[in-house]
Design a protein that fits this description.
heterodimer; A: alpha/beta; FAD/NAD(P)-binding domain; Enolase-like, domain 1; six-stranded mixed sheet; six-stranded antiparallel sheet; 29 strands; B: alpha+beta; Alpha-Beta Plaits; two-stranded antiparallel sheet; two-stranded antiparallel ribbon; 4 strands; globular
Chain lengths: ~425, ~60
């Protein structure tokens, strides 16, 4: 009986997965997908890899062709920003002033790149989150021999530094942590990465940025960058600065809605529900992981898809329970299920692929085993309070990687995990 | 159902193999996807659809 639409806010990996899953799980009513970028849904991990490198063009990043999107029958609103949500009536406000009353809403607005004060007014200081960001950065790195300073030595900064170095630029990677990616993967694996970056010619520095140097006279883009000033007073000459200093969940538009907790993302329960009929998925969602306890938020590509699908299933189950007659007759009744994925992320730097399962950040115990230094074959186990929670593999055959995932799928006692990791990586 | 893949885009996450091990495998040397059965039987279709939907690099394409 209802003609109200379901709306998915955010048209990237999580939003697209949610929209597709809503259809797959039986929603035949109107379905609105709202994205603030003008582009069709595209994939972000290649932005700091193949796209930046120039091996792929933008079309290669599209997650679906128009032929694949058409059958979904979407009311697709690209270049449109949601500016508010009234949770009680499930009503969205869009940037044109339109109010869209919905049967349910899935929020997948992701995160925005953090920046530094003054950066926006300088020609040459960039961030890397969107396709347009990546194309702008790539345009500055044609021709080789540029001086690039990457501020922030997390996953994104390390990947971009690797690509820039491969393209022949002079690259400095600067972070507050002396060891790159140590927050994500611990000091052991981070040290291996540091060694590889140095061997490839990247200059690694520890420190914080104090400000930027510019030359007098300005371009259309602002004052032209000449260098980066560090907190210790030193000056790094630079043509381009990439700020890779993390991101902020895109929840500003929800702040007026007091029924929602928007502290570090949109707070959800174990079912990815933020309020009745309001769900969240992807980088923006902070939810109660039933296995790992504490509320978690991941900016991982795999989580975007898995959580988009989970939020879609659970929203439909809630709606079916609210009004049983509205459920599509040919769809088996879905049950709400807690979202309990095995977290996964990967990173590619030079020829090294890191793959991590479970929780690797925030560990108080890490054991890193280098199996073959020349081949970068490495396994690392992560734990907290005597419980193993995560594992990382580099350079291992896929069968072993899948075996490692199985070890850590559920947290287990540290010693038992060590034995099982050893067994999983013992043969060929 | 007919499966085609764009192996160049594969990021070797291996989710397809976890979901539909009778249809997908990974190359030993780099983990890139291998299709074991590009016209799988009906009892595999749900798993294959899920694998295609979940693939983090949008590698798997399904045709009716």
């Amino acid at each position: 009986m209802t003609a109200l639409p379901l709306a998915v806010v955010g048209a990237s990996a999580a939003g697209l997965a949610a929209a597709e899953a809503l259809r797959r799980f039986g929603w035949t009513g109107p379905l609105t997908l709202i994205g603030d970028e003008a582009h069709l849904p595209y994939d972000r991990p290649p932005l700091s890899k193949q796209l930046l490198h120039g091996t792929w063009e933008a079309e290669r990043l599209l997650l679906r062709s128009t032929e694949q999107l058409d059958p979904l029958g979407l009311d697709l609103r690209l270049g449109t920003r949601a500016t508010g949500l009234d949770a009680a009536t499930r009503t969205l406000t869009l940037d044109g002033g339109e109010r869209l009353r919905c049967a349910g809403v899935i929020i997948a607005t992701g995160v925005a790149a953090r920046t530094l004060p003054g950066a926006a007014d300088i020609d040459g200081v960039l961030t890397l989150r969107t396709l347009d960001d990546a194309l702008a950065l790539r345009a500055r790195m044609t021709g080789g021999g540029r001086r690039l300073v990457v501020v922030g030595n997390g996953v994104l900064g390390c990947e971009a530094a690797a690509v820039a170095r491969e393209l022949g630029h002079e690259v400095t990677l600067i972070g507050r942590d002396p060891v790159p990616m140590s927050r994500a993967v611990g000091p052991g694996v981070g040290a291996l990465l540091a060694e590889e970056h140095r061997a490839r010619g990247v200059r690694l520095l520890t420190g914080a940025v104090d400000g930027f140097e510019t030359e007098p006279g300005s371009t259309d883009e602002g004052a032209r960058l000449t260098g980066v000033r560090l907190a210790d007073g030193s000056l790094l000459p630079a043509d381009t600065v990439l700020l890779a200093i993390g991101s902020e969940p895109a929840v500003g538009w929800l702040r007026g809605e007091t029924a929602l907790d928007t502290t570090d993302g949109l707070r959800c329960d174990a079912y990815c529900a933020a309020a009745p009929g309001i769900y969240a998925a992807g980088d923006v969602a902070r939810w109660d992981h039933p296995v790992h306890g504490a509320p978690l938020r991941f900016e991982h590509r795999m989580n975007a898809t898995e959580q988009g699908m989970a939020a879609a299933r659970n929203l439909l189950a809630e709606l079916a329970a609210e009004t049983p007659q509205s459920a599509a007759p040919d769809t088996p009744a879905q049950e709400r299920r807690p979202f309990a994925p095995v977290p996964y992320f990967w990173s590619d730097q030079y020829g090294i692929k890191l793959q991590a399962y479970g929780l690797t950040a925030g560990a108080d115990q890490v054991e890193t085993t280098v199996i073959d230094p020349a081949e970068h074959r490495t396994v690392a186990l992560y734990g907290r309070g005597g419980t193993a929670t995560g594992v990382l593999a580099a350079g291992l055959p896929p069968r072993q990687v899948r075996a490692l995932r199985a070890v850590i799928a559920t947290p287990l006692p540290w010693e038992e995990a060590r034995e099982r990791v050893r067994a999983a990586t013992a043969a060929g | 159902m007919k499966i085609t893949i764009d192996a160049d885009k594969c990021c070797a996450a291996g989710q397809c193999v976890l979901i539909a091990p009778e249809v997908f495998d990974q190359r030993d040397e780099d983990g890139v996807v291998v299709v074991l059965d590009d016209a799988p039987p009906a009892d595999q279709h749900d798993a294959v659809r899920e694998a295609a939907a979940i693939c983090p690099a949008a590698v798997i394409e399904l045709h009716a």
